[in-house]
């Protein structure tokens, strides 16, 4: 492996240096996508330093002038070098978004502990947290299913239960795959968590809030003030995750997005009484 210094300045065979010194001792920058001016090409070939560096190249580098190179006006550019020297626009945009996300989330984590600037409202935030937790929702849906005496009511409650379980599974899978750590300022004092809940992307509370809000609006809640209340509740659940320092903003934003689409999946998988009866029939 050539040293980093040698890699950045070498006039290796088949490649164009990022910068070279001109005759006046100043650096001249040239584009990788353009053919270098003849005086630079000539200097590449004759300069004893660059010749020495070319000679010390690794076999890999030398192979770079073969099939895995891109041609630029007769010059061969190793593709790996092009990628390093020209970081992609998407890469820069993502790193910038991530930096803004971390900065904003840290600033908004004003209830992360009791002595934070809004530490006094932490108990209220934790109450909102519990309202979006999986256990009260699963227990509530199971209780309503048990108490419901109409077929329509049982159908809705059974599908809500199925939606809640689906949400836990999907969020668990994404968390286990992405493995993004929770913000450093978070205190891990949440009640009843799975092992994947040490990861923060996406927010399980946000997915549940978005999915349940859509579910309630579609099947249960009818009066306009209650519909507004449901939407406010879902928004507060998401926002409280960042205020408590549990999540970064992007975890919650993606959680809302995922929960919204999860509801569409629930509609596709909707269990009708006829289907249930045939499933029960198959079991017997
Ligand atoms: C019946 C049964 C196994 C219930 C499990 C319910 C449970 C422990 C859900 C976890 C809910 C939770 C803490 C999610 C994490 O939410 P984030 O917003 O912090 O991702």
From TrEMBL:
It catalyses: presqualene diphosphate + H2O = presqualene phosphate + phosphate + H(+); (2E,6E)-farnesyl diphosphate + H2O = (2E,6E)-farnesyl phosphate + phosphate + H(+); 1,2-dihexadecanoyl-sn-glycero-3-phosphate + H2O = 1,2-dihexadecanoyl-sn-glycerol + phosphate; (2E,6E)-farnesyl phosphate + H2O = (2E,6E)-farnesol + phosphate. One of its GO terms (molecular function) is sphingosine-1-phosphate phosphatase activity. The keyword Transmembrane helix applies. GO terms for biological process: lipid metabolic process. Pfam families: PAP2. The chain crosses the membrane at residues 156-178, 215-240, 260-280. Its main location: endoplasmic reticulum. Keywords: Endoplasmic reticulum, Hydrolase, Lipid metabolism, Membrane, Nucleus, Transmembrane, Transmembrane helix. It is found in: Endoplasmic reticulum membrane; Nucleus inner membrane. The keyword Mitochondrion does not apply. Residues 1-79 are annotated as: Disordered. GO terms for cellular component: endoplasmic reticulum membrane; nuclear inner membrane. It is an enzyme of class 3 (hydrolase). Residues 1-18 have a biased composition (Polar residues). Residues 156-267 form the Phosphatidic acid phosphatase type 2/haloperoxidase domain. Its EC number is 3.6.1.68. Belongs to the PA-phosphatase related phosphoesterase family. This is Polyisoprenoid diphosphate/phosphate phosphohydrolase PLPP6. It comes from Anabarilius grahami (Kanglang fish).
């Amino acid at each position: 492996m050539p040293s980093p210094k040698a890699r950045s300045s070498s006039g290796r065979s088949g490649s164009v240096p990022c910068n070279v010194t001109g005759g006046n001792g100043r650096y001249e920058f040239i584009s990788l996508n353009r053919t270098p001016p003849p005086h630079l090409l000539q200097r590449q070939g004759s300069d004893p330093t660059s010749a020495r560096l070319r000679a010390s190249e690794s076999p890999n580098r030398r192979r770079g002038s073969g099939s895995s190179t891109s041609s630029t006006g007769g010059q061969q550019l190793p593709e790996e070098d092009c990628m390093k020297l020209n970081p992609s626009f998407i890469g820069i945009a993502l790193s910038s978004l991530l930096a803004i996300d971390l900065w904003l989330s840290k600033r908004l984590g004003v209830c992360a502990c009791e002595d934070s600037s809004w530490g006094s409202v932490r108990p209220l935030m934790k109450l909102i947290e519990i309202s979006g937790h999986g256990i009260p929702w699963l227990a509530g849906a199971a209780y309503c299913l048990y108490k419901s005496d109409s077929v329509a009511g049982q159908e809705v409650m059974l599908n809500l239960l199925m939606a809640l379980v689906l949400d836990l599974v999907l969020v668990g899978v994404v968390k286990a795959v992405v493995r993004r750590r929770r913000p450093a300022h978070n205190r891990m004092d949440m009640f009843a968590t799975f092992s994947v809940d040490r990861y923060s992307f996406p927010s399980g509370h946000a997915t549940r809030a978005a999915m349940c809000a859509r579910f309630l609006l579609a099947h249960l809640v009818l009066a306009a003030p209650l519909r507004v209340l449901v939407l406010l509740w879902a928004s507060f659940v998401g926002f409280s995750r960042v205020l408590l320092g549990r999540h970064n903003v992007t975890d919650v934003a993606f959680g809302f997005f995922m929960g919204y689409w999860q509801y569409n999946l629930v509609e596709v998988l909707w269990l009708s009484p006829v289907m249930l009866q045939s499933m029960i029939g198959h079991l017997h």
